């Protein structure tokens, strides 16, 4: 034991017993000088020499312990379970993102003057194009868009405008379509992702719908301001969901990691909103609460 | 519908480059993970729970795996998951109701001593399982996973001198138990 603190510093007294240096010596973990000193001590100390043999024997027996095969079916069972939880996690992620978009827009509206004023201008100037966009099968396109972005190209910053821009097109249509449907993901994790993001976006606040819809509908003429809240709203939940679910249950963990890629991709290209802190805080709370409700 | 299709496709995709998919890791190295888990926990029940937790961590961390020894990487994940669990069990009684004997009694010993109670015909296994958790984890990383002292020190966030000491005492205790 006495030699434990002396390795590498000053010479080891030949009369000192190497103590725990013995095991390190067996493992070849001692620097040259220390190893030589231990060797020199072993020659003259029968007790340490005997201990070295006993330690070497213990080490050998540990290393000869046979492998322990996993019980039959354990790995297969866990793999299958992961498949199911991944599926559920994906649904949860989409649901969380959809609701977060709604919340983000709602929160952004009162404080953001640009959101209220700019978009109507664009809408009036190019209403025909918006109508065209709205009549396309957007309810289908919207869920697929974010999903693919999450799945296929999380790390590509160039994709970042895509998720934000993919959802709004059906916003103009939604007030007529599903304004009465508030997003209620906790009830059934599978269904809401498809319905809540597009329908829910507008249902929460019809006034806000307009700005969101304008941004993607006419990227050339629309000022970038309206796109800001939208993009941030879409990217915010990604980070929030990932962070919130990372330490929790297994199904949530997988959902979180899925969304994480989305958050990263969006975050890179997104612009700052006028009130990012408030929005971010509320989004984080909402997503966390949502995940807890679903998970529980 | 959309969600389901996406999930299935996602699971079927191979990881880019030479990073194996999670399924491949689970199937190819499941026995190794189980071996380490069993040496750490000392019983099959806890080993299965630990394997489940390890595979979850593998799924999260696979993207960060850099080419190298997959087994060393898995061994580190397994040991850290084990130690996290040991610490959680130690904390639990304090957080729970300290006055309730039913809650207090089974907690702390279950990680260390309970696994020792579940000893095996193999005396070395039993002696290893009876070591204090910190010693056991260090010895397993050294003698089962095959890491060097500096790797173990870095993984456990302790000085190399502590690793040396734990390995020495762990083996010495083992030797005494077998004598």
Distinct helical segment count of chain A: 14
Q: Which structural class do the helices and strands of chain A define? A: mainly alpha
Q: Main interface pair?
A: A-B, 51 and 54 residues
The N- to C-terminal Cα distance of chain B equals: 64 Å
Account of the protein in words:
The complex is a heterodimer of chains A (296) and B (179). Chain A is an all-alpha fold and 296 residues long. Chain A is 71% helix and 0% strand. Chain A has helices at 21-26, 32-44, 46-63, 74-111, 113-125, 127-135, 138-152, 161-166, 174-177, 192-204, 206-217, 224-246, 250-269, 276-295. Chain A is elongated and about 80 Å long. Mean pLDDT of chain A is 57; it is low at 1-10 and 111-274. Chain B contains ten helices and no strands. Helix content of chain B is 77%, strand content 0%. Chain B is an all-alpha fold. The chains are: A mainly alpha (296), B mainly alpha (179). Chains A and B meet through helix 1, helix 3, helix 4, helix 7 and helix 13 of A and helix 1, helix 2, helix 3, helix 7 and helix 8 of B.
What's the arrangement of secondary structure elements?
The complex is a heterodimer of chains A (296) and B (179).
Chain A: H1 21-26, H2 32-44, H3 46-63, H4 74-111, H5 113-125, H6 127-135, H7 138-152, H8 161-166, H9 174-177, H10 192-204, H11 206-217, H12 224-246, H13 250-269, H14 276-295
Chain B: H1 2-12, H2 22-41, H3 44-61, H4 70-95, H5 101-104, H6 107-117, H7 123-129, H8 133-145, H9 149-156, H10 160-178
Entry keywords:
heterodimer, A: 296 residues, mainly alpha, 14 helices, 71% helix, disordered N terminus, B: mainly alpha, 10 helices, 0% strand
């Amino acid at each position: 034991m006495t030699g434990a603190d002396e390795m590498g510093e000053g010479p080891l007294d030949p009369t000192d017993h190497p103590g725990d240096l013995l095991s390190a010596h067996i493992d070849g973990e001692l620097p040259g000088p220390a190893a030589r000193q231990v060797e020199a001590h072993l020659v003259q100390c029968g007790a340490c020499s005997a201990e070295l043999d006993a330690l070497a024997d213990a080490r050998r027996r540990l290393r000869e312990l046979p492998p322990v095969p996993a019980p039959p079916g354990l790995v297969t069972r866990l793999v299958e379970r992961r498949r199911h939880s991944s599926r559920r996690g994906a649904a949860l992620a989409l649901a969380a993102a959809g609701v977060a978009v709604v919340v983000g827009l709602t929160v952004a509206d009162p404080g953001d003057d640009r959101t209220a004023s700019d978009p109507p201008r664009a809408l009036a100037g190019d209403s025909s194009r918006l109508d065209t966009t709205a009549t396309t099968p957007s309810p289908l396109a919207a869920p697929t868009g974010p999903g693919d972005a999450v799945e296929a190209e999380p790390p590509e910053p160039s994709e970042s405008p895509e998720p934000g821009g993919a959802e709004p097109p059906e916003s103009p249509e939604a007030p007529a379509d599903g304004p009465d449907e508030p997003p209620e993901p906790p009830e059934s994790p599978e269904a809401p992702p498809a319905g809540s993001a597009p329908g829910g976006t507008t249902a929460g606040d019809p006034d806000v719908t307009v700005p969101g819809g304008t941004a993607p509908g006419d990227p050339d003429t629309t000022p970038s301001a309206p796109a800001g809240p939208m993009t941030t709203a879409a990217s915010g939940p990604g980070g929030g969901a990932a962070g919130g679910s990372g330490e929790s249950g297994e199904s949530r963990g997988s959902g979180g990691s899925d969304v994480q890629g989305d958050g990263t991709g969006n975050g890179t290209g997104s612009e700052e909103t006028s009130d990012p802190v408030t929005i971010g805080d509320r989004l984080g709370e909402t997503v966390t609460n949502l995940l807890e409700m679903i998970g529980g | 519908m959309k969600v389901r299709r996406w999930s299935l496709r996602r699971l079927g995709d191979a990881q880019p480059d030479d990073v194996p998919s999670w399924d491949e890791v689970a199937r190819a190295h499941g026995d190794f993970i189980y071996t380490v888990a069993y040496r750490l926990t000392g019983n099959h029940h806890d080993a299965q729970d630990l394997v489940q937790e390890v595979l979850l961590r593998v799924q999260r961390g696979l993207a960060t795996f850099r080419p190298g020894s997959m087994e060393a990487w898995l061994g580190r994940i397994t040991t850290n998951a084990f130690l996290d669990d040991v610490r959680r069990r130690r904390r639990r009684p304090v957080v729970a109701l300290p006055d309730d004997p039913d809650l207090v009694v089974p907690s702390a010993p279950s990680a260390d001593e309970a696994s020792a109670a579940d000893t095996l015909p193999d005396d070395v296994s039993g002696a290893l399982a009876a070591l204090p958790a910190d010693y056991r984890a260090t010895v397993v990383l050294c003698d089962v996973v095959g890491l060097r002292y500096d790797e173990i020190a870095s993984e456990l966030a302790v000085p190399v001198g502590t690793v040396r000491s734990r390995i020495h005492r762990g083996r010495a205790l083992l030797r005494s138990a077998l004598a």
